[in-house]
Amino acid sequence: MTTQEISTIKSCWEVIAPNGILVAQKFYKELFESKPEYRRLFTGDMDKQAEKLMMTLGFLMANLDRMSTIKKSVEDLGKLHANHFKVLPEYYPPVKVALISSIAYYMEEDWTQTHHNAWDKLINSVATMMINGANKKGFKWKFWK
Ligand code: HEM
Protein backbone atom coordinates (compact mmCIF):
# COMPACT_ATOMS: atom_id res chain seq x y z
CA MET A 1 0.00 0.00 0.00
CA THR A 2 1.30 3.48 -0.82
CA THR A 3 1.27 6.28 1.73
CA GLN A 4 -1.48 7.94 -0.29
CA GLU A 5 -3.63 4.77 -0.28
CA ILE A 6 -3.13 4.35 3.47
CA SER A 7 -4.21 7.91 4.14
CA THR A 8 -7.22 7.53 1.82
CA ILE A 9 -8.37 4.43 3.72
CA LYS A 10 -7.72 5.94 7.16
CA SER A 11 -9.68 9.11 6.37
CA CYS A 12 -12.52 6.96 5.07
CA TRP A 13 -12.44 4.84 8.23
CA GLU A 14 -12.80 7.95 10.40
CA VAL A 15 -16.07 8.70 8.60
CA ILE A 16 -17.53 5.20 8.67
CA ALA A 17 -16.24 3.86 12.01
CA PRO A 18 -18.99 5.64 14.05
CA ASN A 19 -21.47 3.72 11.86
CA GLY A 20 -19.37 0.56 12.04
CA ILE A 21 -22.12 -1.82 13.08
CA LEU A 22 -24.50 -0.41 10.45
CA VAL A 23 -21.80 -0.83 7.79
CA ALA A 24 -21.27 -4.45 8.85
CA GLN A 25 -25.02 -5.17 8.93
CA LYS A 26 -25.43 -3.68 5.46
CA PHE A 27 -22.47 -5.78 4.30
CA TYR A 28 -24.09 -9.04 5.45
CA LYS A 29 -27.45 -8.02 3.95
CA GLU A 30 -25.81 -7.30 0.57
CA LEU A 31 -23.70 -10.45 0.73
CA PHE A 32 -26.67 -12.73 1.42
CA GLU A 33 -28.72 -11.03 -1.31
CA SER A 34 -25.98 -11.61 -3.89
CA LYS A 35 -24.91 -15.01 -2.53
CA PRO A 36 -27.79 -16.62 -0.57
CA GLU A 37 -25.83 -19.88 -0.49
CA TYR A 38 -23.26 -18.29 1.89
CA ARG A 39 -25.89 -17.75 4.60
CA ARG A 40 -25.69 -21.33 5.88
CA LEU A 41 -21.96 -20.85 6.66
CA PHE A 42 -22.87 -18.35 9.38
CA THR A 43 -24.19 -20.29 12.34
CA GLY A 44 -23.50 -17.81 15.15
CA ASP A 45 -25.15 -14.59 16.31
CA MET A 46 -24.96 -12.08 13.43
CA ASP A 47 -24.76 -8.99 15.69
CA LYS A 48 -21.69 -10.48 17.38
CA GLN A 49 -20.29 -11.38 13.97
CA ALA A 50 -20.76 -7.78 12.79
CA GLU A 51 -18.85 -6.58 15.86
CA LYS A 52 -16.01 -9.04 15.22
CA LEU A 53 -15.73 -7.93 11.60
CA MET A 54 -15.55 -4.26 12.56
CA MET A 55 -13.00 -4.95 15.29
CA THR A 56 -10.87 -6.77 12.73
CA LEU A 57 -11.15 -3.86 10.32
CA GLY A 58 -10.11 -1.53 13.18
CA PHE A 59 -7.11 -3.77 13.86
CA LEU A 60 -6.18 -3.57 10.15
CA MET A 61 -6.56 0.23 10.23
CA ALA A 62 -4.12 0.47 13.14
CA ASN A 63 -1.54 -1.55 11.22
CA LEU A 64 -1.92 -0.39 7.63
CA ASP A 65 1.63 0.93 7.46
CA ARG A 66 3.17 -2.24 8.94
CA MET A 67 1.12 -5.06 7.44
CA SER A 68 4.08 -7.45 7.57
CA THR A 69 3.89 -7.39 11.38
CA ILE A 70 0.31 -8.72 11.40
CA LYS A 71 0.83 -11.27 8.61
CA LYS A 72 0.79 -14.21 11.04
CA SER A 73 -2.52 -13.14 12.65
CA VAL A 74 -4.13 -12.62 9.24
CA GLU A 75 -2.84 -15.98 8.02
CA ASP A 76 -4.24 -17.65 11.13
CA LEU A 77 -7.62 -15.99 10.47
CA GLY A 78 -7.42 -17.48 6.96
CA LYS A 79 -6.71 -20.95 8.36
CA LEU A 80 -9.71 -20.60 10.66
CA HIS A 81 -11.89 -19.59 7.71
CA ALA A 82 -10.78 -22.51 5.56
CA ASN A 83 -10.74 -25.22 8.18
CA HIS A 84 -13.52 -24.24 10.53
CA PHE A 85 -15.89 -22.02 8.54
CA LYS A 86 -15.48 -23.98 5.25
CA VAL A 87 -14.65 -20.82 3.27
CA LEU A 88 -13.18 -21.47 -0.19
CA PRO A 89 -10.80 -19.05 -1.98
CA GLU A 90 -13.48 -18.19 -4.57
CA TYR A 91 -15.75 -16.83 -1.81
CA TYR A 92 -13.44 -13.87 -1.25
CA PRO A 93 -14.32 -11.76 -4.36
CA PRO A 94 -18.10 -11.57 -3.62
CA VAL A 95 -17.27 -10.68 -0.01
CA LYS A 96 -14.98 -7.90 -1.24
CA VAL A 97 -17.69 -6.52 -3.55
CA ALA A 98 -20.29 -6.44 -0.74
CA LEU A 99 -17.87 -4.90 1.76
CA ILE A 100 -16.73 -2.11 -0.58
CA SER A 101 -20.31 -1.41 -1.60
CA SER A 102 -21.42 -1.09 2.07
CA ILE A 103 -18.52 1.23 2.91
CA ALA A 104 -19.33 3.32 -0.18
CA TYR A 105 -22.99 3.50 0.90
CA TYR A 106 -22.09 5.09 4.26
CA MET A 107 -19.51 7.43 2.66
CA GLU A 108 -22.37 8.85 0.60
CA GLU A 109 -21.28 11.59 -1.85
CA ASP A 110 -17.72 11.61 -0.43
CA TRP A 111 -17.00 8.25 -2.05
CA THR A 112 -14.62 8.41 -5.03
CA GLN A 113 -12.87 6.02 -7.40
CA THR A 114 -9.70 6.67 -5.38
CA HIS A 115 -11.43 5.27 -2.29
CA HIS A 116 -12.64 2.30 -4.29
CA ASN A 117 -9.16 1.51 -5.63
CA ALA A 118 -7.50 1.79 -2.21
CA TRP A 119 -10.06 -0.48 -0.46
CA ASP A 120 -9.93 -2.93 -3.36
CA LYS A 121 -6.16 -3.19 -2.97
CA LEU A 122 -6.35 -3.59 0.82
CA ILE A 123 -8.99 -6.32 0.73
CA ASN A 124 -7.14 -8.16 -2.06
CA SER A 125 -4.01 -8.10 0.02
CA VAL A 126 -5.79 -9.32 3.18
CA ALA A 127 -7.60 -12.05 1.21
CA THR A 128 -4.30 -13.19 -0.34
CA MET A 129 -2.71 -13.40 3.13
CA MET A 130 -5.71 -15.34 4.48
CA ILE A 131 -5.69 -17.80 1.56
CA ASN A 132 -1.90 -18.24 1.82
CA GLY A 133 -2.32 -18.93 5.53
CA ALA A 134 -4.96 -21.56 4.80
CA ASN A 135 -2.63 -23.20 2.27
CA LYS A 136 0.20 -23.52 4.76
CA LYS A 137 0.73 -26.93 6.25
CA GLY A 138 0.90 -27.79 9.91
CA PHE A 139 -2.35 -26.25 11.09
CA LYS A 140 -3.29 -27.53 14.53
CA TRP A 141 -6.92 -27.31 15.52
CA LYS A 142 -6.18 -27.12 19.20
CA PHE A 143 -4.55 -23.73 18.60
CA TRP A 144 -8.04 -22.27 18.28
CA LYS A 145 -9.63 -24.08 21.22
C1 HEM B 1 -11.83 -9.87 3.93
C2 HEM B 1 -11.54 -10.92 4.60
C3 HEM B 1 -12.27 -11.38 5.84
C4 HEM B 1 -12.17 -10.90 7.11
C5 HEM B 1 -11.30 -9.74 7.60
C6 HEM B 1 -13.04 -11.71 7.94
C7 HEM B 1 -13.20 -11.57 9.30
C8 HEM B 1 -13.85 -12.47 10.10
C9 HEM B 1 -13.77 -12.51 11.55
C10 HEM B 1 -12.95 -11.55 12.43
C11 HEM B 1 -14.52 -13.54 11.98
C12 HEM B 1 -14.74 -13.99 13.43
C13 HEM B 1 -13.75 -15.11 13.76
C14 HEM B 1 -13.92 -15.70 15.15
O1 HEM B 1 -15.06 -15.87 15.60
O2 HEM B 1 -12.89 -15.97 15.78
C15 HEM B 1 -15.09 -14.17 10.81
C16 HEM B 1 -15.94 -15.26 10.83
C17 HEM B 1 -16.52 -15.80 9.73
N1 HEM B 1 -16.32 -15.42 8.43
FE1 HEM B 1 -15.01 -14.03 7.78
N2 HEM B 1 -13.68 -12.64 7.15
C18 HEM B 1 -13.24 -12.47 5.87
C19 HEM B 1 -13.63 -13.19 4.76
C20 HEM B 1 -14.66 -14.11 4.76
C21 HEM B 1 -15.18 -14.76 3.58
C22 HEM B 1 -14.66 -14.60 2.15
C23 HEM B 1 -16.19 -15.56 3.99
C24 HEM B 1 -17.06 -16.41 3.08
C25 HEM B 1 -18.35 -16.26 2.99
C26 HEM B 1 -16.30 -15.44 5.43
C27 HEM B 1 -17.16 -16.16 6.23
C28 HEM B 1 -17.08 -16.21 7.62
C29 HEM B 1 -17.84 -17.15 8.43
C30 HEM B 1 -18.82 -18.20 7.92
C31 HEM B 1 -17.51 -16.90 9.76
C32 HEM B 1 -18.04 -17.61 11.01
C33 HEM B 1 -19.35 -16.99 11.40
C34 HEM B 1 -20.03 -17.68 12.55
O3 HEM B 1 -19.35 -18.01 13.54
O4 HEM B 1 -21.25 -17.84 12.47
N3 HEM B 1 -15.37 -14.54 5.86
N4 HEM B 1 -14.66 -13.50 9.69
Automatic annotation (TrEMBL):
GO terms for molecular function: FAD binding; heme binding; metal ion binding; nitric oxide dioxygenase NAD(P)H activity; oxygen binding; oxygen carrier activity. PROSITE patterns: GLOBIN (PS01033). InterPro entries: Globin, Globin-like_sf, Globin/Proto. GO terms for biological process: cellular response to nitrosative stress; nitric oxide catabolic process. It comes from the Bacteria. Coiled coil: none annotated. Belongs to the globin family. This is Hemoglobin-like flavoprotein. It comes from Reichenbachiella faecimaris.
